[in-house]
Amino acid sequence: MDSDRLQHAEAVRGHFRRALLASMAFVALLGAIFHAGAWLGEMRFLALVPLEPAGLVGIVTAPLLHGSAGHWLANSVALLILGTLLGTVYPRAALRALPVLWLVSGLVTWLIGRPSFHIGASGLTHGLMFLLLFLGLLRRDKAAIAAALIAFFFYGGMVLTVLPREPGVSWEYHLGGALAGILAAFIWRRADPEPPRKRYSWEDEEDEPLPGDDDGEFAMPRPDDVPVLWELPPEPRGTVLPFRRPTDD
After folding, report:
1. Which among 45, 59, 66, 239 could disulfide-bond with 71, CB atoms 3.0 to 4.6 Å apart, if both were Cys?
2. Mind listing the pLDDT tens digit for each residue in 135-163?
3. Is the pLDDT reported for residue 230 higher than 90?
4. CATH architecture of 2-187
């Protein structure tokens, strides 16, 4: 059991390094695209426009675009934290769920969004947070619960942003990401195995058979095997008195 736990800890460190590097690379890509926008000029044609056939391309490209440095920075920090957390705890589910979060959040926005230009990776960040939250609720092992609590501690406010609150903020993208995260959690909740559980000494004692129990179940000993601790004294026997037969006088 100790060797399994050591191997698992080493695997988690490897997952953390890969998830951190991948998240940093994606954040750097978003930054490069944002700063390149000032040189390339108008990139609105890559935005998502609901119910417009030309706006379908935005389902793929809109998460790469940001309207301001603050917009890019806020999403980048969330992607760095939540992406690293997801890739560390759920490496298999992360690879399968990320395309779903990306595409489903955009599709929902295209179907229900206001007639405007929708850009930004906020749908992806909301998808990551809801995915981590619902994986913790569905799996309920220690690692899953810890990851859900960390995600909720940093970004629990995303639960409220799936509804319209601020003008100019694409709550439709937030809602689409949340729905995509919940869907992915239900589909891939068992994609990653549970971490090995620490076994305590009293659990091993319970598995040991009882003395004289060959079947591993409690069985009563034979009467001959039970030691006699005390014996009853012999019962007193009565005296038989002879009776004389009556005689005829």
Report:
1. 66
2. 999 998 999 999 999 999 999 999 999 98
3. no
4. Up-down Bundle (1.20)
